[in-house]
Write a structure and sequence with these properties.
It is built from nine helices and ten strands. With about 300 residues, it is α/β, with parallel strands linked by helices.
Amino acid sequence: MDLLKKYNIPRPDSKEYQGEAYTNELVQRVITAVDAKKIPAGTYDAVMLDEGHDFKLEWLKLVAQMVNPETNSLLVLYDDAQNLYGEKRTQKFSFKSVGIQAQGRTTILKLNYRNTEQVLRVAYEFAKEVMQPTTGDDDQVVLVEPASAGRQGPVPDLIKLPSFKHEVDYLAERVQQLHERGTAWNEIAIFYRSKFMGDRIYNHFQQAQIPIEWVNANSDSRNYHPAELSIKLMTMHSSKGLEFPVVLIPGIGYMPYQYGHGTSEEEARLLYVGMTRAIEQLIMSCDRSSEFTSRLEIALGKVVAKVV
């Protein structure tokens, strides 16, 4: 929007384009204007692109065009295991095709420092069917199997309860125990998959006078306040890029989510992202059996067996 204003490029009509279509049209008009040299390229001496896996090909091309060719300083951070929004890359995709000079300049970071070995192993065992490592040269996207830095912690929990109401009650009891044992409220996060879960958890915690911040509940709660002494309640999608010492994920029995547009593979990646936000402790619960609860039980069994 700022670039279109600055260079007097006509902006989309909000009556003609609604919601996501409006945003996409904004981006497309910038791309078209850069190609037509109406918006100058190469205007930044250095660009750092985080979460590159979420960018569409044309977005990657646009970012590469914005780098000053004299400095040629572009840093792209990319983890295909966390590709929740971007396009699925084919084996034919190359960074060169979007103007990024990756050949001979790529570093692959395999060590995972965020999670304990137990959290990482359970998450990877759960999702490995849809996250098989791939190989390729410096110019291609590869999916890397993460290696633990060796930090130890408790094996994640999968608690089975008779109803989602019991799950919510259990969450409240567990976070209060954690807090009594010295865990700060803002070191605890709860991730949910469906809106009704967020509603029930938030309302129950409010009634129980447990401090809780519902991130992205609506347009009035989009700002995230990490320092505020409250539990952070958010969707799994919103959790991407964040980390917390303790993560609780209820409602596993409802996954893979049946009423959205995502596939089982995409849902598995989403849960993997949610699980790997946990620095020390991961607590999950369910009130019914599902494909994902079965897979988690197998993953937990393997990790417990190794510990024993």
